[in-house]
Amino acid sequence: MIRYDVTDAVATVTLDRPEAMNSLTVEVKTALLGALREAAAADAVRAVLITGSGRAFCAGQDLREHAANLEEGRGLAGTVRAHYNPLISLITGMDKPVVAAVNGVAAGAGASLAYACDLRVASERAKFAMAFSGIGLAPDSGASWTLQRLVGQGRAAELLLLGEPLDAARALELGLVSRVVPEDELLKSAHELAVRLAAGPTKAYAATKRALHFAASHSLEEALELEADLQDALAATDDHLGATRAFLAKERPSFTGR
Ligand code: T3D
């Protein structure tokens, strides 16, 4: 249900349950978390790419499993905390860039999964649907946090309350995705982007992610303090020292991630 492969220091994690639009059962979420933990821990991996097989990126929670849980009177706090929250925390906190290649519809927690990634590349066929309100739920998997940071509070409220799907062109207009490419170029284009990131200054990227997340909920003074600490730590990295020397020698820097 999840494919995992590593090429050019990029771990590609593919949701592979196309017959159910790559919707998320406990089994899929557990395997996805396992694959992402493996990518996070592997020194040989310096960027991660998440995509889906078939015509969906991910249709969110598997509603058949969900209905069965409701029938049995199980609440949702356990499943959301046990399965969705760790996935989103892992992606947003990962010390490596994470790119989503959105190949088709991303709905509910599937859209949240894409929003938690650092960059999104969409196929012309991609659609984003904040499907939560359509089934009488509120956002989960971090969408209340990520979406308004991506598009602003007003747009986020509109998307979450009305639940109307956005096509790829509109998602690009709103800044939800970095680029839109023809369907048959999506994987190549997103992989090239991930390879470019994998060949970059991994520690500086990790610090950038940390600074952005921190600044989103702290004062300017606090953000300035953290930036100073992060720059200080980066000053000692091989990548910074090497790139500074390369600049002065009028050479191209080459980054090792150390
Ligand atoms: O339990 C918890 O932990 C709570 C957490 C909730 C988090 C959430 O994600 S809530 C939101 C859940 N997702 C949705 O509400 C989306 C439901 N799906 C749709 O709205 C539509 O299927 C799509 C917009 C995604 C795609 O529409 P369309 O017309 O292109 O395809 P379709 O015909 O509706 O679906 C194709 C098949 O995929 C179909 O199966 P079938 O009839 O061919 O056997 C459909 O049932 C299945 N499918 C689509 N989404 C889901 C799904 N099966 C299970 N769960 C799904 N989410």
From TrEMBL:
SUPFAM superfamilies given in the database record: ClpP/crotonase
Pfam family, one: ECH_1
Recorded superkingdom: Bacteria
A molecular function (GO) term: isomerase activity
EC number(s) given by UniProt: 5.3.3.18
InterPro entries tied to this protein: ClpP/crotonase-like_dom_sf, Enoyl-CoA_hydra/iso, Enoyl-CoA_hydra_C
Keyword Isomerase included in the entry's annotation: yes
Enzyme's top EC category: isomerase
Alphabetically ordered keywords of this record: Isomerase
PANTHER family registered for this protein in UniProt: EG:BACN32G11.4 PROTEIN, ENOYL-COA HYDRATASE
Family listed: Belongs to the enoyl-CoA hydratase/isomerase family.
Record protein name field: 2-(1,2-epoxy-1,2-dihydrophenyl)acetyl-CoA isomerase
